[in-house]
Structure to design on (807 residues):
């Protein structure tokens, strides 16, 4: 929209005015911020010099205690003040180059003039403490900016809904204190600023979308009602962006009660973690905790068992077709992620309550101290109505008692005698001096003994005496035995007497046994082979990825559930890639947390995927319908209209996906006569893309194996600078890279080159979503290559959606 010059001038003047005030406040705060900092460090340094600890009398002690308390109270007060001021100071500095990005003029019903609301990344209030020069984007009134076009509008405050009329909505691009651009929005004109933002190139770091949050995204960001918020959103619809804005919103809204480390976000891989790590700091907030499910599994499984990671699992699924046992493994993956299996394990828990618990004998020096049989007998003696957990605790107490009495008996065991004989003089000396110390410590007894010695004119027992050496030996024996019982006791406390591996393993003995133990659970057809594979892994102290969560589930069924009550919000990104099992798990792990799950079933490329949106989705059942809100995002912001039109046709049900209006060339399908030709052509295309100014370019392959080959062969053809991305890659950088599709999830590139779009690569139904995921990583350009036929998912697309080339 054309802007009146008068408006421009006024806006420039206001901007200059606000910036002056910001600058003034910064200058004002500067010495205080610096001074406070000095003071605080100063006090901390002198802290222990000023308080002398005097404990000779009780009053002195009280006095010192009081001084310490007082000092630390002053310190805490100063530090609190310091933190607040520093925060303010930082906010002002962040505002200075670009104080705001939006403005609305709002006339509240019943008022006769409208108020100008300028919106920025944090609030800035006049010296008088009353008028807002800038409103934080998270304030209630700022939601008007995101939710409405000019016209009737309303927003919700803690006191109720405020209605009125929005007379103006204006967007600004302000850089280094200058207005670069200004747009007025009305019903017909879309989001100009968004148009501009989306036209730019991909970055190695995700950016905040605070200035252009869309209405449907705003609903996600500000949702504070449900226990479970599920977002099913098309590729590029801003799920991750909205999630991060939501974290910032929650931190603001609940700033009195929630810290950043009480929010945890599950990411698909470490590279993704680095990709999104700058968004919150950019918004002036601290980062939430970030982790992956794998990290958690590894932590709790400890060193006793090694779990495969999800990337090795998917690599197997994608590359091992035709290998013996392949079909069974696939069935196993699906089954072990299902609610059938969850139910089966719950039933198994009941069964274990009646029979079949497995224990590890407690052994000392290749000898059974307490056998598994004894434990089992003891265990099933307890009241059967008690839950498994409580009986395990009873058994634990019993074991600790048993150990105590066995320890006494053990002192006379032959091996202890052997050890005694091998003790060196140093160890003897140590015990000897211990015995003497004993004597000095009990100095009343010592004095008494001395007196008695004098009275009786009799020398008392000493080193040379028989009794003394017996005591010495006793002490040595008990020390030797104690040493070797410490680990046993520790083990019992950590439940290592429970044979979880055996308990999990015995589920996979035979079909009939499984049926019996799980109360007639559903069994997949290739069960016998699934059993064989599972047991083979267990024998090597390994677990398939699909077994890891169920294994922990069984472990906790018996040992009790681990919980973290600190965490208040859990975010799961790429939520379609988690099994119902894993969700069940997260729910238990964080009993006081609300959950936000974001994902796209269209990109469900792992076998254990969960549908997020279906009415019978296990996710909805997790907290129940009443506690769950489901939001769908269908507008795709990442890719140009041409790319979205192309990709959405690959998905059944993809019709509902709507592109944001941004134009570019159609996807290009290049057919080549051979692999050599392909590599040469890909290199030429990369050169051309770089010349066009694109600097984030990804050659996407189906598997890691294919990535390695492609990378190798592209290098041979001259692409030295190309980077190979593997599951170990920690940082996301710009440039040209080769990457397997399952690692490219969640990130985006200026240009995507699908290395091999043949039927061999993407032919089976479960490969459809892989191809879709690969293609939807592209923002501006999409190229596909094939050396023979095209994948059926490409062939099925109408020809007007792409260009063709062949060499
Ligand atoms: N409101 C918005 N304003 C500006 N940019 C946006 C907005 N929403 C989304 N985007 C941009 O669209 C792109 C895709 O966003 P994002 O990665 O959050 O989508 P996603 O739904 O998580 O995608 P995927 O499912 O493919 O991982 C990003 O570049 C993001 O900055």
């Amino acid at each position: 929209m054309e802007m009146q010059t008068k408006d421009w001038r006024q806006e420039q003047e206001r901007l200059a005015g606000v910036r002056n005030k910001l600058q003034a406040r910064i200058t004002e705060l500067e010495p205080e911020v610096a001074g406070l900092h000095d003071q605080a460090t100063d006090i901390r340094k002198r802290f222990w010099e000023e308080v002398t600890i005097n404990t000779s009398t009780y009053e002195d002690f009280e006095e010192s205690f009081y001084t310490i308390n007082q000092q630390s109270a002053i310190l805490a007060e100063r530090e609190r003040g310091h933190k607040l001021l520093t925060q303010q100071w930082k906010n002002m500095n962040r505002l200075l180059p670009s104080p705001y990005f939006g403005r609305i003029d709002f006339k509240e019903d019943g008022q006769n003039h409208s108020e100008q609301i300028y919106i920025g990344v944090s609030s800035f209030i006049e010296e008088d403490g009353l008028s807002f020069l800038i409103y934080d984007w998270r304030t209630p009134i700022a939601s008007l900016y995101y939710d409405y076009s000019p016209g009737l509008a309303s927003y919700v405050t803690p006191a109720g809904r405020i209605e009125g009329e929005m007379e103006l909505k204006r967007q600004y691009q302000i850089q280094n204190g200058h207005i670069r651009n200004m747009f007025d929005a009305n019903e017909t004109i879309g989001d100009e600023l968004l148009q501009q933002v989306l036209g730019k190139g991909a970055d190695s770091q995700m950016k905040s979308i605070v200035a252009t949050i869309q209405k449907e995204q705003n609903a996600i960001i500000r949702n504070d009602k449900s226990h479970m918020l599920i977002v099913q959103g098309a590729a590029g619809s801003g799920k991750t962006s909205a999630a991060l804005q939501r974290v910032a919103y929650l931190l603001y809204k609940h700033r009195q009660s929630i810290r950043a480390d009480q929010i945890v976000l599950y990411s698909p891989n470490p590279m993704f973690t680095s990709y999104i790590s700058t968004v919150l700091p950019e918004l002036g907030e601290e980062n939430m905790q970030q982790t992956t499910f794998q990290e958690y599994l590894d932590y709790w499984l400890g060193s006793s068992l090694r779990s495969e990671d999800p990337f090795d699992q998917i690599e197997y699924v994608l590359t091992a077709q035709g290998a013996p046992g392949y079909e069974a493994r696939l069935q196993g993956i699906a089954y072990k992620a299902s609610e059938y299996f969850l139910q089966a394990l719950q039933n198994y828990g009941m069964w274990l309550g009646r029979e079949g618990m497995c224990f590890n004998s407690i052994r000392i020096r290749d000898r059974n101290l307490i056998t598994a049989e004894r434990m089992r007998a003891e265990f099933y003696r307890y009241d059967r109505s008690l839950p498994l957990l409580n009986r395990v605790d009873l058994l634990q107490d019993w074991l600790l008692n048993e150990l105590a009495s066995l320890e006494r008996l053990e002192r006379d065991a032959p091996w202890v005698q052997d050890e005694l004989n091998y003790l060196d003089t140093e160890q003897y000396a140590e015990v000897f001096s211990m015995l003497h110390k004993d004597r000095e410590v009990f100095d009343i007894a010592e004095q008494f003994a001395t007196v008695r010695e004098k009275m009786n004119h009799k020398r008392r027992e000493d080193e040379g005496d028989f009794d003394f050496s017996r005591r010495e030996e006793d002490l040595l024996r008990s020390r030797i035995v104690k040493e070797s019982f410490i680990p046993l006791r520790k083990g019992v406390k950590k439940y290592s007497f429970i044979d979880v591996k055996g308990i999990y393993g015995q589920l996979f003995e035979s079909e009939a046994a499984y049926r019996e133990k799980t109360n007639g659970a559903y069994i997949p057809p290739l069960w016998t082979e699934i059993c064989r594979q599972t047991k083979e892994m267990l024998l090597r102290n390994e677990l398939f990825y699909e077994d890891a969560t169920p294994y922990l589930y069984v472990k906790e069924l018996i040992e009790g559930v681990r919980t973290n009550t600190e965490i208040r919000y859990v975010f799961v990104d790429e939520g379609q890639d988690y099994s119902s099992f894993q969700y069940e798990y997260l729910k238990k792990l964080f009993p006081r947390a609300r959950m936000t799950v974001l994902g796209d079933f269209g990109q469900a490329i792992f076998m254990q995927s969960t549908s997020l949106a279906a009415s019978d989705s296990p996710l909805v059942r997790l907290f129940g319908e009443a506690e769950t809100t489901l939001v769908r995002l269908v507008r795709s912001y990442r890719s140009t209209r041409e790319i979205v039109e192309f990709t959405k046709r690959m998905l059944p049900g993809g019709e509902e996906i709507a592109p944001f209006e941004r134009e570019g060339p159609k996807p290009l399908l290049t057919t080549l006569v051979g692999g050599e030709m392909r590599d040469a052509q890909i290199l030429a295309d990369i050169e051309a893309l770089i010349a066009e100014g694109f600097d984030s370019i990804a050659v996407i392959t189906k598997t890691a194996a294919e990535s390695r080959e492609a990378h190798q062969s592209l290098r041979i053809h001259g692409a030295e600078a190309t980077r190979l991305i593997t599951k170990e890659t920690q940082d996301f950088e710009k440039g040209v890279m080769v990457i397997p599709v399952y690692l490219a999830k969640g990130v985006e590139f200026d240009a995507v080159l699908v290395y091999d779009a043949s039927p061999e690569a993407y032919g089976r139904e479960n490969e459809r979503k892989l191809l879709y995921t690969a293609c939807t990583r592209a923002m501006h350009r999409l190229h596909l290559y094939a050396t023979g036929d095209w994948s059926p998912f490409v062939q099925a697309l109408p020809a007007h959606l792409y260009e063709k080339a062949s060499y």
Summary: The pocket of adenosine-5'-triphosphate is lined by residues 194, 197-198, 207, 209, 212-214, 217, 233, 235-241, 600, 637-638, 746, 748, 776 (CB under 6 Å). Residues 5-50 form the longest helix (46 residues).
